[in-house]
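Ticket #4471: structure export looks truncated?
Reporter: QA, pipeline team
Priority: medium

Steps to reproduce: submit the single chain below to the structure queue and open the exported record.
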Amino acid sequence: MSFGLPASFSQYIPLNNLSKAAFQYAAIRTFEKLNWAVIAINEDLLIAETNQMNSTWNEKITVDFSLDDPLLISSSNGNQIYDRGRNKKNTEFFFDEFNEARKEVTQTDEGKDAKEKLLARTKENCKLNNREERSVTEFYSVFSIFIPTSQYLITPLLLLANILVFFSMFFSGVHFFSPAILDLIHWGANYGPLTTDGDWWRLITSVFVHIGFIHLVANCYALAYVGLFLESHLKKIGFLSLYLFCGILASLSSLYWNEDLVCAGASGAIFGMYGILLVLIITKEIRQKLSTNTKFFIVFFIVINLLYSFEEGTDGAAHFGGFFAGIVFGSLYAYFKTKRNNALVFATLLTFILAPAISIYCKSKKIYIYQIIEYETKMQEFVDMEKMALEAYSIDYNSTKEDVLYMIKERGIYYWEEDIKLIKELDKLYLPKKIHDINKQLALYCELRKQVYELAYKKINENTSMYDGPIGSLNNKITDLLEEIAKSQKE
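Actual output as written to the record:
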């Protein structure tokens, strides 16, 4: 087993009286027998690639002729930290076949023309092998998830960024599995009242903040696989841009639907990338030859996680927002096909149009939320004045007629009029229609109460029973109205 970055294994090969030309000829014959594709050749160097195993990264085999004894190097193409012994086995395979090929060279005297034809054929195959697209759909090892390669660069960098932020949080005192809400907000989680109050940077920082280690691992696993399939197709700038765009739109979706929920995690951005991948699979634009099992896994993963988005405590708005953003972006790439730059330009324009528009709406919605808070605070004043107005009926039997009339007029009628004024003022706020409808009912309730008090004042002042009928009728209306108000508040 070899370690390194990338993992590799090397060994010198004694010439044993072979000329460099004969050695090179034997090495080429060895590569042919092993079915390893030669990708570069010159006087001092011969480079080949091994066959792919399980649709993962293969190894590069280099034979360096510039030294006294040629050096054979087998190195992992995926920059894996360890190789499970594959590089050492490659050298063993090479030596087994090379020894046979060397015997052929020494035992047979092939003509110069035959050797030149072999070199010419090998050089021509180099061009074809370099043009050949090698699809990678499996990881070499668990460590290779985090190691950048030529076609898998942005994904591991994003993974490492998420891990760095998480452990920075942990070493600063944040709980490893269950971070406190205030800690998440402190580290940049998306929180409506703060985000809309000028902390718009939270739309992107929240994508790198995770709610515990399990949340981080799940998102890293999902991101690694979608990056493996997509990054080589979208290219580095396209993959990074679309990931961030999906993350921003997912955060805005959460802001739109969730008024006071603290939201964090890369899930929205990752769902966006899976939305892109799904479109490219359906339209057959993805270059990798994905197996039926792999396609089934991708669809199953998307469906299960979208269903899980409806669970309490899960930010389903961010999941669906990111996913539908990915569907749109994927459709752009499918439409433009090979013109990926055009697709990226349109995706950028769309994001720069939608993001400010949703932000402006969310900011106005924030005012709407704050006015509801103001309404609820003022309604406590309404309740307090209602209690004081109703106390006018709680009259001591020893009270004089003047005291009773004073309580009805100066306490009862006065506070009903004050409640009516308060309701009219509150009705000027930017509130939902439901609250405006309840306000009308409350204003009518206060008006009916005021009329009862005015008739009661006349009844006591004039010492007559002629107002008993109207008072009873008004009290019945009040009873019915209170039932309607209670019903409206429950709806």
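Status: closed, not a bug. The export was complete when the record was re-opened. Leaving a note from the reviewer for reference: The chain has a mean pLDDT of 86.
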